[in-house]
Amino acid sequence: MMDMDFIKQMDKEHAETLSNEGKFQYYESLRSKLPFVEQIETTNLCDCTCQMCPRGVGMMNRKLGAMSMEMYTTIVDEIHEHFPNGYQPKNIEKRYSFEDVVSIDFETTGLRLHHFGEPLLDKLLPERVAYAKENSNVDVHFSVNPTRLTPDLSIKLIKSGLKRLIIALDGTNDEEYKSIRGKRVDYDTAVKNIEELIRIKKEEKSDLIIDLQMISMKQTKLQVEQFRKYWEGMGLNVYIKHFFPYPDVDHNEFTIEDEGNFKRGCMFPFTSMTIMRDGSVVPCCSDYNGEITLGNVNEQSLKEIWNGENYTQFRKNFITNNLSEDSLCRRCGFYEFKD
């Protein structure tokens, strides 16, 4: 979830007239005191070696494993405590389109069960979805590699009450797919699994929302229309996602030159948090190694972390550009610092 009320209320033109300290105080006045959790990393295991991902090219050095069910339920229970009716943005007139402020993919009111791992490698995934469904009013969704989406797992996920499933499939043939996602993916298997999911959904009369995603980059640019035509013909929502410039990866060979970039401004420190599989809280989806750890759910509540000294100081340093030259934020392609 992201605090979209913050985005709606923020006046960029006004903020630009303020001193660094004034800008920080202004953003703090708009920030919710309740913690919005954007992602829970239930596992950081992954069998893909995606070229555009820092994890895929071997830069992640964290211990591998899955989040305990006890930790997961504690997180979901606190989210429900803060948002007993789920999260719905207030009816506030927007000053800007969301895209002018921060890049938004899919809906922003749900909870994503992924970070730098493949959710389908989490053996407890259907159980986790069911727990969130039965014990909160917050919908969960996540992105998966369809090579791993077996018919048996599709049935379990549908019966768990999953609302939305994002399926990442890049390319229209096995050679291209492997060149982007690694040797362990298989295009024919991926297509077969997606088609089986569609069949099972109809058979179960499920209201699961399926978004099929392809990243727009040089290797896939010429395949977009073929991809869209085939899968929309199968009744799926097709989303051509802008390329995301993660830190520490050379993206020049992927990025489409005439495509708009992501340097529109980052508000993640004020709108949401991400929880890694060991309980570490980081500010956003780009922190693949827990470089900016602001607390841990094993030691504090989400609310205590969100409003604590570490998070507050990080927000201040972030918005006033008082970060070291080698900080993760400065290495990220999402936000362009102006010194």
What does this structure look like?
The chain is α/β, with parallel strands linked by helices. It has helices at 4-9, 12-16, 20-30, 69-82, 98-101, 125-135, 151-160, 174-181, 187-204, 224-233, 268-271, 302-306, 309-319, 328-331; strands at 37-40, 111-112, 140-144, 164-168, 209-216, 237-242, 273-275, 280-282, 295-296. Strand 5 (209-216), helix 10 and strand 6 (237-242) form a beta-alpha-beta unit. Helix 4 runs parallel beside helix 6 (125-135), helix 6 packs parallel to helix 7 (151-160) and helix 7 crosses helix 9. The protein starts with a helix and ends in an 8-residue tail after the last helix.
Structural class estimated from helices and strands: alpha/beta
| DSSP helix fraction | 25-40%
Bin the strand percentage.
Answer: 5-15%
Distance from first to last alpha carbon:
30 Å
Number of helices, counting only DSSP H or I runs of 4 residues or more: 14
Question: Which residues form runs of ≥5 with pLDDT under 50?
Answer: 98-106, 259-263
Q: How is the secondary structure organized here?
A:
Layout lengths: L3 H6 L2 H5 L3 H11 L6 E4 L28 H14 L15 H4 L9 E2 L12 H11 L4 E5 L6 H10 L3 E5 L5 H8 L5 H18 L4 E8 L7 H10 L3 E6 L25 H4 L1 E3 L4 E3 L12 E2 L5 H5 L2 H11 L8 H4 L8
Parallel strand pairs: 1-7, 2-3, 3-4, 4-5, 5-6
Antiparallel strand pairs: 7-8, 8-9
